[in-house]
Amino acid sequence: MTYTKPLPVVDVWSRPFWEACKQNKLVIQRCNQSGEYFYPCSPISPVTRTHDWSWVEVSGRGKIFSFVVMHQLYFKSFTDDIPYLIAQIQLEEGPMLITNLVGMTREEVKMDMPVQVVFTEATDEITMPQFTMIR
Amino acid sequence: MADWPLRDKTCVVGVGTTPYGAFPDSDTYGLGADALATAVADAGLSWGDLDGLIVCRIPSYQRFAEIARINPQFCTSVESAGRFSSVGLGLAAQALASGAAKYVALVYGNNGRTSKAKYGGGETTQWAPWGFTSPGAIHSMMWQRHMHEFGTTSEDLAHVSVAFRKHASLNPNAVRREPFSIEDHQKSRFVCEPLRLLDYCQINDGAVAWIMTTAERAQDLRQKPVYLSGYTRQDSFTTASLPAPDYWYPALQKISHEIYDRAGIKREDLSGLSIYDNFSPTVMFSLEGMGFCKQGESGDFVKHGTLELGRGRWPTNTSGGHLSESYMQGWGLIAETVKQLRGECAERQIPDCKAIQYICATNISASAIFRN
């Protein structure tokens, strides 16, 4: 089954993130001096503005900071998903990201609820991180 | 504190707007040229006077300048996003105050309706793989959090949409003029839940042009000058890739501590407001951030017609704004501000209008106070 949804743009900074996803691992950059995690993937730490940072495997846990239900079709490839859940997740380690909520219904969604990452293979290169409630 | 050096030093002396709607026989160049021609005549200037040019959402500044035969000494294009209407305003004021130009034309052209501009659906954008796209979705994500944090509701937003539609019903140039009720708003379909159709701005073709000059030169022109008394801006880029977790509140608060001092005008001296309303929650974030009410209390603030002309203390977006007149990305709001301060708004005129504050809450937040 061909994956038709938009694929992430893999660039020089995000390549290690996507390679880790393929291994079902979530890795985030962390500033070595301050300990602050930052995302999306970047060339420098926004704290020190240097390359003094490391890739760190994070817990994969976070909470639902916010969510929406998309009713409008913007991408044809999402036709069968409409309406679909999108969440702004705050990872335990601090940074936020946007993702889908999977394996749960709209009624089950609660603000601030704990969630964890799940990985779904999309193509040979890309495995998609999404989040689900901790049951 | 020393007075803001640009206070009352520059004026808007000409405005031009096209009708708003669907114009497949024109484009941003044609619409922009029409709006500018209206503005030039409105100002009582001749085309040869224009030595400054800022274009927005018109693809080539030099092609536009070729079309209009303008050879400026100050010229730039600003990006298409709505945050750039007030950025353009600030740049023009700085150019005039520094002597870089004498008469600056600012021209915005939008053919989004005919070109079926999709505000969303870019397949290579950051969150497209998860189907998250469009400014509407971003604001929806922010409003969901706001409701959770402060207890505001979708119905609170309805008061904003209803108010601006009432104003649009008095505006012959507005695209959407039929008034609707709170109940109608609550029944309108979800576009990106929690935001509904009536929380979203109206995409149309059209153009807006302003002409600005120094206060000294403004005295000799056709229209009563409208002064830019104060302007300030604060950008929020730390979480630029995300829906702003802080509702731009810190940036707007900073602006609120500067704008009235810069203008030399107190909030209580304002006659009305122009608030960037790409979506109804943006108005709420603006009111809270600017200190018209406490953070989280915009729901109570907008109930009972606070923003309605003839009913509330703070008539806002008397043209109907982006939600009902047309989405002209701030340019139309400032054009309406100028018309209000000149007393040209007929049925939707704010009585005894002396000063109006423009507020734009985005990753580039800004505010400007105009007076007559």
Main sheet: strands, sense, barrel of chain A: 5 strands, antiparallel
Spans of at least 5 consecutive residues with low confidence of chain A: none
CATH class annotation of chain B: Alpha Beta
Return the CATH architecture of chain B: 3-Layer(aba) Sandwich
Oligomer: heterodimer
Shape of chain B: globular
What is the CATH topology assignment of chain B? Peroxisomal Thiolase, Chain A, domain 1
Gyration radius of chain A, in Å? 16 Å
In words, what does this structure look like?
The complex is a heterodimer of chains A (135) and B (372). Chain A is built from 1 helix and 8 strands, in the order H-E-E-E-E-E-E-E-E. Chain A has 135 residues and is mainly β. Chain A has a 5-stranded antiparallel sheet. A 3-stranded antiparallel sheet of chain A has the order 2-1-3. The longest helix of chain A is centred in the first third of the chain and has 8 residues, at 15-22. The model of chain A has no long low-confidence stretch (mean pLDDT 97). Chain B has a single domain (10-116, 202-371), classed as Thiolase/Chalcone synthase (Peroxisomal Thiolase, Chain A, domain 1, 3-Layer(aba) Sandwich). Chain B has 12 helices and 11 strands. Chain B is globular. Chain B starts with 9 loop residues before the first strand and ends with a strand. Strand 4 of chain A pairs antiparallel with strand 5 of chain B, so a sheet runs across the interface.
